[in-house]
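Usage

Read records sequentially. Each one opens with the input sequence:
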Amino acid sequence: MRWKANLLFALAAIAVAAATTLVLTRGEGGKAMRSGPGPLSGAVTWNLPDPMGESGVSTESALRGRRSIRAYGKARLSLQEVAQLLWAAQGITHGGFMRTAPSAGALYPLETYLVAGDVENLPAGVYRYLPERHQLVQLLAGDLRDKLCRAAHHQGSVCSAPAAIVFSAVFSRTTGKYGRRGVRYVHMEAGAAAQNVALQAVSLGLGTVVIGAFDDEALRQAFSMPDGEEPMLIMPVGRVR
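and closes with the structure output:
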């Protein structure tokens, strides 16, 4: 009977993922058919380059090289680099829904945003990453790094980076099953995802740092986050000087 239990678990996890992510048409610059939390119907989506399966940097080398980098060069990020970082954060690795970072009950409470200011072949704006499709959906157009900078109390690393990854969390996805203990599980998951990004940045020759000091409400308003979604951390990304 174990196989039946496993099948039911997998189906339940897929249902949760479908209920809490956006269902959109494919195609760079394509139009969304319908949306979940955040973007409006008709939002523009962007296909991302496929993630790389390996690199010349070993896990051990990435661990040794990981540092909190707060100053970046002026060179732009490539779309391939951004795609790789987002995949490292929350990309799909197995079964169509399992991700790079562990999640209690496979409930995946995290949402991943990209604040793009200077990324090749991607208009400046705020995007939400769609793990199941390895796509971006544009939430807001224009270079909004200044708003992010202000929300982060004008920290230099946030203000100067060509792009930033922002994690938020819908705690109810996890607490609905685990109660108050689920809050701890969400924080554990955010830490795992952030470390994935940090190590991936090292392998790409990029720098990043985990930022936890920011005005939560200012960030929520800047990204038009829906009720029940809370910002967790900011990771500015840029080239190491």
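Summary fields computed downstream for this record:
- The helical segments are 2-20, 59-65, 79-90, 145-151, 156-160, 172-178, 181-203, 216-223.
- Residues 2-239 form a domain with the NADH Oxidase fold (CATH 3.40.109.10).
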